[in-house]
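Troubleshooting log. The previous structure file for this entry was overwritten by mistake, so regenerating from the original sequence record. Sequence copied from the archived sheet and checked twice against the printout by T.R.
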Amino acid sequence: MQVKAKSLVVMHKRRKENFIDEVRKKAESFLVSHSPAATATKFLLMFTAIGGISIVGATLPGLVKAIGFFANEAKKKNRYPKVKIKNSFEYLKKKQFIEIVKEKNGKIQVRLTNKGKKRLAEYSLDMLEIKKPEKWDGKWRVLMFDIPAHPKKYDYARDALRDKVKELGFYQIQKSVWVYPYECEDELLFIAEVFKVQQYIEILTVEKLLHENLVRKKFTFL
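Regenerated output below.
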C-alpha cells in the first residue's frame, strides 16, 4: 500500500509539472501571436507567467516602474499603447491577479498570485486545440466522466468540461461518453486539471466501436 501511495504521489506531481509546462508553452505562444483575443490584460498576465518579472532600481514606486517596464516590452512587440498597459496592469493588481514585491536588493518582482494562476489557466484553456495528424491511425479516443453532483462547484465543472470537448469537436455517443479520432490525452488531462476533476474522468484508446459507421459519419474529414 505504501508503494502504491508513493506511486500515486509521483504521478500526481508529474501531471502537475506537465500542466504548468503546458500553461507556460501557451503563454509563450500567446506572446508571439497577434490574434484579436490578445488583449493588453492577457498580454500582461501571460508575460508575467513566463517566470515572474524582475525590475532593477528603486527610484520610482513599484507600480510606476512595473507599468513602465511592461509598456516598453509591449512597444518592442508592436503591441499596446502605454495607457492600455497602465489600465490593464492596475486592473490585474486590483483584482489580485498579480502582486508587486520589493526585495532587499532593491529589485521589484511582479508575480502571479494563486488567483492569477487560475485565471491564466482559463486563458490557456481558451487557446487549447488538438493537432490533427496528416493521416488517421484508425483508433478512437474515448472520454468518459462521472462527476459528482455535490458539492455545487462540480455542476460548473461538468458543464464546462462538456462544453469544451464539444467545442473541440468530440462526438457524444452516450450521456457522459465522448469520442474523438485523434490523440488527445494530454489535452484532456489539461482540461481536467483546470477544472480539478482528474479523478472523475477516464480516457480510452480503442480500435473498434460497435456503431463505428455512424460515428465516422460525424467525422467527415477521415
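The two ends are 45 Å apart (CA to CA). Archived copy saved in two places this time.
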